[in-house]
Amino acid sequence: MKLLSPLLPLSALILILFTGLETLCNTYLLENGVRIDLVSITYVISGLSIAIIPLIANPQRFTTNLSANYSRFNTFFLFGFFVFLAIYTAVFSNVIFQKMVLDYHISDTVPQIKVMCQRLLSGHKVYAPIQEIWDGKQPPYLPFMWMPFSFAEIIGIDIRWTTIIFLLGGIYLTFRILPFKFYLHPALLFITCIFLFLLLNFLLARDKITIGRTEEGLVVGYYLFLGFALTKNKPVLIGIAIACCLLSRFALFFWVPMYLLYVLFYESKKKAAIITSVAAIIGLLFFVIPFGIQQPEYFLNIPADYKVGVNQAWNYNYNPETGIFYEKSLGYTKWFDIAQVHFLHNFQIIVAAVLPFLLLLSYYLFRKKISINQQFFGICTLKITLVFFYNMIEVPYYYLFLVSTFFSYAILFAFLKYVNDVYGSLKSINC
Asked: Is 186 left (phi over 0), alpha (psi -120 to 50) or beta?
């Protein structure tokens, strides 16, 4: 007997392959000197495809011709694979932390965070120039980008373990998207896990900088948490996850009001109210009241400080032989000149602000003409937003793109759950 109709396994397999291709573009292909322009274009196409496929898969075309139950094997396989990933990540991370000491002359992100945590624990003003870093570095990070590191500082361990815990926590939640009774063929999970391992292995064995000198694992964990919350459709969890993402990076800043409008008009007013209330309360308690009210001018000046940093980064990443800025990076910046950097910044803001509402308008206009899987609207429109946001970012360090790349696995697991749910319902009908 067939596992499912050709359409369903093909949709799942294509989505897995696009996720793998996106992963390779953000890692090994970028590193190995393949034509970067083609890698960049492929990365965008892969990301958009990952967002579109779940939206248009049609469950009415699935067959009721079903196969055996792989549920128990799949459960043990995922559990075993996560344990392996956790041990593998911990071992390699420990080696990285021992070899890469914190030095702000090489990378000032984690050293800044460490000082901010120390200030919080000692009762000093957190948002003030850090004299021990660049003779007065202005800390630019929102509270949820640095606060979680305080726990490591309290117990006296390397604060970079925080990024590992959040990264692994996000992956664990992504695995938990799948139900315990997962009926589909283990090959789908096996291929998915190979690509996920390749992504982590690149960070641990080849790259090392992302783990050793950045806080990016924390942000990845937040977005995977949001992917989990959107898939589980729990308003309180969604509100918490949105607050975590907003108080770390602003990549989804304009997606949030669009998503709330969508929930308000097409799902439930109560759900929209809960999400908004939870996110607002967290924002008030952890940002506005302790920091925003006391130093509003500080946060208003961050955009101007950011522009100064952008100009410095562009001058540093200029190749005088080719006359190209960021020629070995993903994103669109390689096709712009330093004189156009402010245009690129403004264009990014405009696209980030308009794009989510264009997606909502498209849904309103075409929802009756095109069969759209409504349950994927939130997570897939967020993916589209992330694709455009990160590919238009002015300082395109490759590790920044990891947020969008890892988020694809949340979409992939959500789609596999969807496939499994359809399979299960058809199986029960046959029984």
From this structure: alpha
